[in-house]
Each structure stands twice: as structure tokens, then as C-alpha cells.
Amino acid sequence: MELFEFALYFLLFSLGVSIVTGIRVAARRGLYNSLVGVSIVIIALATVLTVIGEIYAIQFSRDIALYLLALATMGALLISKIIKGEGI
Question: What pLDDT shows up at residue 87?
């Protein structure tokens, strides 16, 4: 096994751990914990999609990761505006 492959597998394992951590944070009480947990999961999932797309030469995985990040960011901004009471 090359060092590059080992680094990729270690990266995927680390991202899996961060996804589990994000789910645990999102499961706690409170809206802010949920937003932070979901953001952690979205960022880790987008990174996993990008890495898997590079490993297996899947062309559309970057597009899915980019859309996922954009929609998650817009959703978090909308929720925070609603919480502040400014409306949409």
C-alpha cells in the first residue's frame, strides 16, 4: 500500500468520525447545537464526496458536494434570520 492510499483511507476514517460527532452534537437539545451539528455533517459529507470522486474518477461528485454546501449555507442563513425575527 502506498503512502498516498494510506493517507486517503485515514482521511476517510477521520471524516467518518467527524460525521458521527456532528450527529451527536445535532442530537443535543437546542437549536444552535442542531445547526452546528448539521453544518459539521454537511462539510464532512461534501469532503467525503469529493475524495471518493477523486479515488474512483466520478465526475459529478464535486457538483453534488458543491450544491450540498451551497444549500446548507443558505439554509443556515435563512434559519438564523428567522430566529432573529427579521423574517425571510
Answer: 66
